Amino acid sequence: MMASIVLPIVGAFIILVLGRARRFKSALAVVFAGATALLAIWRLPSVLDGYRYCWQLPFLPGLDLLFITSPLSAFMAVSASLIGAFIVLYSVQYMAHDERATEYYFFVLLFIGSMMGLVYSGNVILMYVFWEMTAICSWRLIGHHRDTPQHLLNADKAFLITVVGSACMLIGFEMLHHQTHTLIIAKMKGFTPSIGVTLLIITGIMAKSAQLPFHTWLPDAGVAPTPVTALLHAAVLVKIGVFAFARLFVGTMGLPPGFDQFLLVILAAGMLVSGCAALVEHDMKRILAYSTVSQLSLILIGFTLGNPVAVTGAVFYILAHGLSKAGLFLGAGVVDHHMNERDIRKLGGMNHLSPANGVGFLLCALSIMGIPPFGGFFAKLFILVGAIQANQIGLAAAIAVAAVLSLLYIMRLWTKVFMGPPAEFKAGPRFDLMSFVVLVFGLLSVISVLFIKYPFDVISNIATQLLR
Known about the structure:
This protein is an all-alpha fold. It has helices spanning 2-18, 22-48, 71-94, 101-120, 124-142, 149-180, 195-208, 217-220, 226-235, 237-250, 259-280, 284-305, 308-339, 355-369, 375-389, 393-418, 433-450, 453-467; strands spanning 54-60, 63-68.
């Protein structure tokens, strides 16, 4: 467990020391990211069988450095590290000629290590420390092209919104400590915090997950290099809020009476508003960003409903959305990298640029749209059924409308960018490392369908233990 936290962080500093050894540096980044993923995958079966890894070191009075595994944390570690490893592999070609590649790999590995630390944190203060580490990494990565003033402004906007939210969360943690007299998450089991404490903590979660009304920073973060946007949307940053909500308010504490209804209204509104925004947007990355806001709202709805069917769908959608959205962002990045264009009105026939990229993008798109029998379909169906079981008919209707919206804006993106005859300025067919990674994500979406019983068995196990 500790190796998967320490390894990427140590690797980040090793790469920083290497300086100008560009090729060796990128290969080393792939090794560190891949080894982190392998460690997380190797640990998952034993955790699902009931074994708990625990590491504790006395630090300050009342505050120990405590890291512990759970089925949910092990699942999140596998999801984030696996997607992160493929994104680092994609970066080898994408960042090959970037003058700030050293800085990029440093912050990406530090980002992955911070995520590992967060999911295994055993107390709320450790969770907050790693939470803020991810904020610093994302701020630096979003502003990677700092020669452009607008990029810096967008990075600062993302940092300010998420940090203000996390400051509210820290106040909530302190008030929670005053009510429970403990910082250890496991000792808060069964406790229901006050509305004020819950609102403060939820504010931090909603800001990090880019939920209404804090969602505006995520589309603006599209100025970052494509691998960074894939990390933010699919693997690490916005998934942190989802994980924290599930860890604190599904697996440990309860929501105050009536608060779940208030939260469901906010989430449903955000899901529909962002879906409509994606439908009228013309920038590839912004379309996918609004899609992420909508899909994360759906995942949070599943966890807020709290019944076994909805929670199972929410956990499964974390994986399905992560794989598919990473493929979509990286596929859009292939187009942007070669054509230097993100406006879908000026693109077309991108299948002629790279058929492998087009196929991978399409497979990921089918999952995000919820087309059966792809994983996204089953995840959305479970959350929809969970809403019906909870007698939330209006919410179920909103979920159905959001599903239709996702079908419309993803198909609009696909047809505008990849279909039709190529324009004169388009390049010929290509197959490169970046397109290969996109195709891998598409194939992973297919494989999860072919072996749908196994992931559902695993996820049902996670959901059952989370609700126990």
